[in-house]
Amino acid sequence: MFSEIKKIENLFVLFIIPIFLLLFAPFRLFGEDGYELWLRYKNIDNADKLEEYKTNIQAVYFPGDSPTLQAAREELTKGLEGLLGIPVIFANGSIENGTLLVGTPASSNIISSLKLGKKLKILGQEGFIIQNSVAKGKKCIVVSANTDVGILYGVFNFLKLLQTNKSLENLSISDKPKIKHRLLNHWDNLDRTVERGYAGFSLWDWHKLPDYLDPRYKDYARANASIGINGTVLTNVNSNSAVLTPMYLEKVAALANVFRPYGIKVYLTARFSAPIEIGGLKTADPLDPEVKKWWKIKVDEIYKYIPDFGGFLVKANSEGQPGPQNYNRTHAEGANLLADALAPHGGIVMWRAFVYNYDVNVDRAAEAYNEFVPLDGKFRANVLIQAKNGPIDFQPREPFHPLFGAMKKTPVMMEFQITQEYLGCATHLVYLATLYKECLESDTYAKGKGSTVAKVLDGSLFNYSNSGFAGVSNIGTDRNWTGHHFAQGNWYSFGRLSWDHELSAEEIAKDWIRMTFSNDSEVVNTLKEIMMASRDITVSYMTPLGLHHIMAEHHHYGPGPWVSESGRPDWTSVYYHQADSNGIGFDRTEKGSNALAQYYPEVREKFSSLETCPDEYLLWFHHLPWDYKTKSGRTLWEELCYKYYSGADSVKWMVDKWSSLSGKIDEERFEQVSAFLKIQQKEAIWWRNACLLYFQTYSKRPIPSEYEKPSGTLEYYKNLRFPYSPGIRPSW
Amino acid sequence: MFSEIKKIENLFVLFIIPIFLLLFAPFRLFGEDGYELWLRYKNIDNADKLEEYKTNIQAVYFPGDSPTLQAAREELTKGLEGLLGIPVIFANGSIENGTLLVGTPASSNIISSLKLGKKLKILGQEGFIIQNSVAKGKKCIVVSANTDVGILYGVFNFLKLLQTNKSLENLSISDKPKIKHRLLNHWDNLDRTVERGYAGFSLWDWHKLPDYLDPRYKDYARANASIGINGTVLTNVNSNSAVLTPMYLEKVAALANVFRPYGIKVYLTARFSAPIEIGGLKTADPLDPEVKKWWKIKVDEIYKYIPDFGGFLVKANSEGQPGPQNYNRTHAEGANLLADALAPHGGIVMWRAFVYNYDVNVDRAAEAYNEFVPLDGKFRANVLIQAKNGPIDFQPREPFHPLFGAMKKTPVMMEFQITQEYLGCATHLVYLATLYKECLESDTYAKGKGSTVAKVLDGSLFNYSNSGFAGVSNIGTDRNWTGHHFAQGNWYSFGRLSWDHELSAEEIAKDWIRMTFSNDSEVVNTLKEIMMASRDITVSYMTPLGLHHIMAEHHHYGPGPWVSESGRPDWTSVYYHQADSNGIGFDRTEKGSNALAQYYPEVREKFSSLETCPDEYLLWFHHLPWDYKTKSGRTLWEELCYKYYSGADSVKWMVDKWSSLSGKIDEERFEQVSAFLKIQQKEAIWWRNACLLYFQTYSKRPIPSEYEKPSGTLEYYKNLRFPYSPGIRPSW
After folding, report:
1. Residue B207 and residue A31: Cβ atoms within 8 Å?
2. What is the mean pLDDT of residues A613-640?
3. Are B207 and A14 within 8 A, CB to CB?
4. DSSP sequence for B45-79
5. Number of CB pairs < 8 Å for A and B?
6. Which of A75, B176, B643, B682 lies at a 20 to 30 A Cα distance from A431?
7. Which residue of B has its CA nearest to A427?
8. φ/ψ (deg, to 5) at A138
9. ipTM of the modeled complex
């Protein structure tokens, strides 16, 4: 008898386990090419943790059959089987110690018996709890929420605990998003090019939609849902009205169907002139009754295709896009036209504040404020104003946009750029959560100290009824989604911050590293160190001390401080750095453009005074002589040299740090990141040399002798051409 | 003692085998997304075969260390470990029964002792043998060749034997290519768009080259080498001289370095006006000494970057491309200019015959012949004339190009299109080997009966000193390389035929199915049946009875028989179908354009006579009344209806056939092909309805009542617009 049991055990070990391992091998051993992102679900290699998790998750009780719950259960199954390396056993109501309970109180008596009502009450439509509990006298972990999508978020967060090797003791997680609309903005064109995209081409294979649904669409939804993103604008803000025609709406609907179970709504960009282009009207005047009617019918049509359509994102009267000002109407009149059509269906309008008209006598940094603040209070309730983090355009470092805090009656939402238009495009490792946090934590002083940008955004400062975060996507057809493996971390951290802006950049980085690379402490610490330093390093070799907008024209790849002729003066570099024989920098104090007047007094004073203005913003707000003594004791010219050289040197430090992890990172990703870091190192030196050689023509001062001499001449750098750099619209 | 052994055995079974299985799982269990192409190396599921193979391949003796031999050994290792599921044991000269011997006689005494010299002598620089042999008294299989690349080809072919479950008894394979230059032509632009590309975008990530080498480049080389392709033209024939500048040559060199071990040379397209555009000259006149000098220096420079550079492919004086005729020089003078620069380095010029000037009084089908035949004998020895298979432009069915057989002193090489510009673009299942074979086996009668196109191409008919096959690539960034899984079979069959044009389309299909999908006989037979029928089906629903060039403008997606205005008359459809109230078809007999005069008498007579002209070419050569009685007994109009309806119905048959394999094909590929087949079915009906409704406006006859009525109106079909169809150059 004993030997019989042994035999069966042996059989199990001999056949069942290996067969099982093989069955699930695709999940666990799938090529480490980055496709799986942070949802890697690799078998947990910490034996103690594995044991703890197996003990706590011996079975799963997970009732319910909505598409969202099915998606959540599928994810949980895939995750647990990958992480634990054993099949998931689903319980049918017989609860034992170590049964994981997942569900809403409404879905099951067992879960409603846990009396979670009070805790859940404050968690709204998207929150969830994860906690230790006792059900039917058994020790259990419960994942619960008020809604199915709350369950989905709970499941992803539960898996994250395992992925990051957290303890399952004393769990008491209650979480809900601080921001309502958490969206990716895809600047994707219908021909699949992506404006400012550096990771291949658009994921949306319009030609084969709606008939063929690339499995990648679902993985895209999974990744977004896992970090709390609940909306996606499929099309470029430089928009094309064709997407509003039935042929495309049918395709959009097919994508919406894939995304819906994951709590993700689709949005489109609305071209303001669509009534003319596809409607056959003679005008797009927002006050014209025919135009109003056209939009109403069009929006009703959209909702027939997509019953939960999210709404429109609009770039109007900006960089050539049509808008209400073409008809002498205001942005409010334009936005309200669309808002009225959307309101009956619950849709919203996100109206971009990135506008600047053609009067170049005004500082471009001041224009959005000038245009929008007078309109505060004139927008419909379902309109949000979407402002970029800074007043120029996603520069490596900008002060926060003065519009944050200035619109008391109109919700202002955030537009961060995840794609690295100005941050090295495809190949520079720059962790952007530090940039995002810097802006979010900036104090507007709108209602006194502590009136941070984040509090403006989440609505708590002015009691906005709506709130939103948008991130310009860095996602494309590249196998690893984002081109650079580390750019995945920017997508990830944008999502995490859109859910909870109070998280620190460092804790997000650690989670991401653990989920994406390894729980090995050396890996975690080294990568965290690289990531946390990376953005300041990049600022140093690109645009130190508050310099901005000195990149090459059009494609924005590489340095171009010499750009002096363009379609508009404020598309040149010289407009922004103002370098001359006297000095360098843009004077935005009252002696200059006085753009500083748009900030609240405390901010204005801090930035106006050379005593208190941080070095980071020095040349953003001040034009200073080359011999100006900076806080370091060095002259401005010397400080500029110091920053550029130390920035470029620090990339070498990043290269060395990364190299030290050889053997601890899978080969394919290790090699790719190594190659990209070497490109970054080369290009940091390019930026440094080109900028310093150019500014030297004004400063007339030598580069301090302790630094290596630039290898190329200024002429060499000025003559470099990159006509096929990625991320440019073909029509430009 | 016995129990000790048992214990060790158990240990082995318990740990070693599972660990080993897991180690190699990525190769075998890699997601069935089509990335692995026909190099799947899946564990052999036929137990008898597996046993036979394990017995015959117990160890591998494979000396030598050149990059090519390393690549071959790596492939053999990956292949055997995947197919056999056990680690490869490499022998160091101790030969036993079942040792696989791989190497050139020069590489090893053991192999030279086999006395293969006589057999190898006739196999040239690329041939190989695979045979059973006895070495040191042991039964062995030997793979040998005169060169390292021959070994590589031998290894791929040996693995193919296993992949297709062939017996390893009585092996006696001696093989060498019949064609010297076997090339893919990539119509890839430097911005990564692909003209007529339907599988995503260009593989060449120029922006990150030369620093980052996508692992995919190597897999591309492996796939090509496995089917005998030995060259690749990286850039579009609508060319861009920027690729000849140092910045790009450095990138090209990096690709060449990846491809070199796989026996693949890189080629570029040379823009004839490059001396002006990047050389600063005032002219590109081929007789100008400065121009000659410029090209010589440029070519010398290219060879500094790429010592084994293959040469140039040139589209000149065709569709707006510059060429020698801009300077009143001939194509020969243009080609010789480049040939002279390349000759010292061993490079070749492939000069395209796809030209048609602006005199529309001439039948476009006749123009290439008229331009090139008079130049026969005037080209340098390292020039090949590259002609498309038919005289128009890659139509679903064309008669063979009259240039084949007409150039006795100048090697004419073949340009087939693999990408499906006129064959349903991304989503139609059309197996092209039958199209290729139809052309290759066509008899030109140039030297009497049996003077097939293939014999012209391989040089045997006219003793050409050079020979070439080019295929316009269907490869892009799509995960499965070619968009449609079955389009992989077109890449595959092009390669196989370029090596050996005597292979049948059917045997190539069988190999491909076995390697790509399954050795299951139902799968093999069903897919073979679908594939073999597919091209005729497509011709029937698109362009039956010799109709041609009736597709939509520009993007060529879908029907457009009504296209009557375009940049040139011979870019319209009406130019080609000539439908009027009397009848339909292009009269190319002596009563018409007399293009038939360009064929040898036997061919001319066959096609001229309505008695002998096959139905397939009826309207290609004849304009016939709607009531003309066809061989079927039906009138021409009825026959047209019959063809369109039976073609569309046959797609339904394909759908059903494919569906019958449910469960025998992995899920992801099964679903994708199913979706694509449904698109094909929809589009076949679209083609049928649009064409018949249009032609009916001339025929004034009803669609026979046994057929279902077209669902849309002619106006509906005429008004469909697809401005963002893939595969169009952005500049168009």
Report:
1. no
2. 98
3. no
4. --HHHHHHHHHH-SEEE----SHHHHHHHHHHHHH
5. 113
6. A75
7. B208
8. -110, 145
9. 0.94
